[in-house]
Amino acid sequence: MLMVHKANKLKGKCVVPGDKSISHRAVMLSGISKGTTKIEGFLKGEDCLATLRCFQQMGVKVKEEKNQLFITGKGLHGLEEPEDVLDAGNSGTTMRLMAGILSGQDFYSVITGDASLRKRPMKRIAFPLRKMGAGIDGREMGTQAPLTIRGGGLKGIEYQLPVASAQIKSAVLLAGLFADGVTSVIEPRVSRDHTERMLQSFGVTVRQDGLKCTVKSEELQATHIEVPGDISSAAFILVAAACIKGSDVTLENIGINPTRAGIIDVLCQMGAEIGIKNKREIGGEPIADVRVQGSDLKSVEIGEAQIPSLIDEIPVLAIAAVCAKGTTRITGAAELRVKETDRISAMEEELKKIGVEITPLEDGMIIDGPQTITGGSTDSHGDHRIAMAMAVAGLLSEEPVTIDNHHCMAVSFPGFIETIENLRED
Q1: Is 144 annotated as belonging to a binding site?
Q2: Confidence band (pLDDT; 50, 70, 90) for 420?
Q3: For residue 422, how far is the Cα from the chain centroid?
Q4: Active-site residue, selected from the candidate residues 193, 312, 379, 383
Q5: Is the entire prediction scored with pTM above 0.85?
Q6: 63 appears as a binding residue in the annotation
Q7: Is 412 one of the annotated binding-site residues?
Q8: How many domains, the chain?
Q9: On the chain, which terminus has fewer CB atoms closer than 10 Å, C or N?
Q10: In the listed set 195, 226, 257, which residue is the last one of a domain according to the structure?
Q11: What positions does the entry give for phosphoenolpyruvate binding (predicted)?
């Protein structure tokens, strides 16, 4: 078990691992492009490595030199039929986006994942891909993994997303690269747009008309990708420093894509002192250094319109709400119920163990603050974001917080504890 003690303050500079969402997409688009793509800053977390292994099983050549990946793509139609089942591990991004690519391949494939991923809903991607002509089946009437996919012969469609989801949007757009005609996706509200940005960096024409995004079949050309620091990983340090008086931390080279930067907006609404410096753009992605100083926080209302830009940050925002004065209400986040674990129930259960009361909602939670975190024993539920949220709670707790099954932090932030300890100034 991992034991985390209270921190007097956090000070200094740090970097966080490469963006998980961008790392996934960099491997996928490199694998179906022509030529060799150089990727810098690739996240060597368990999820992204699962994506890498899947493409290697389909004949994509990968070489690593001095922390850089060189991926030689097979073009749109050059992937090889895998001899064995593709394993997405715990990664929903791998399974859902890969399903779009596999639907365009003129061969048979099976993709599965660990026990957690096999419980997560896949109907949301299987339905539109079937409409495009893919043969997809799976457990529970084709709604859960393992998924079997017989691809090829796709037709472009116009698809109205039932929920704002970058994974569904991306799966359909990626399938559209292999389809006859044009493929359009219409969102109910904006979701993260890494796929659209990266497609353009590989030379694909992407038409954006409000909430409608359109692509057609077009060869991808190899490029050079620099993966910025993951703002979802940075969120844990941002919240910790914002909650501890006297803290002053600068996180360097962080991706501040507006479809992902909701954590910064909300912390600013709560009264956090956050400064954005050295703004620039690399490969179509905005990047900056983010400075955060400890301050008094106040409660905030987070609603459905904000959720797509900070869905992964809700567990650690719950810790910020515990420190904030007033009642924080989070709604419109039902998607939390079908992540690596039910994150609403998990946060309620684990916070209760360390002396904090929250009121769970079907689509969110209500937290009165400030409350004292007393310390105690917690469990990650095998979810990296729950584990790191409990670690942040430990930095704010009167007595130590212990975390069982903490190794899952490596899914998105290998070295998280070491990074925190290097910033600690006791």
Answers
A1: no
A2: very high
A3: 25
A4: 312
A5: yes
A6: no
A7: no
A8: 2
A9: C
A10: 226
A11: 20, 92, 120, 167, 343, 385
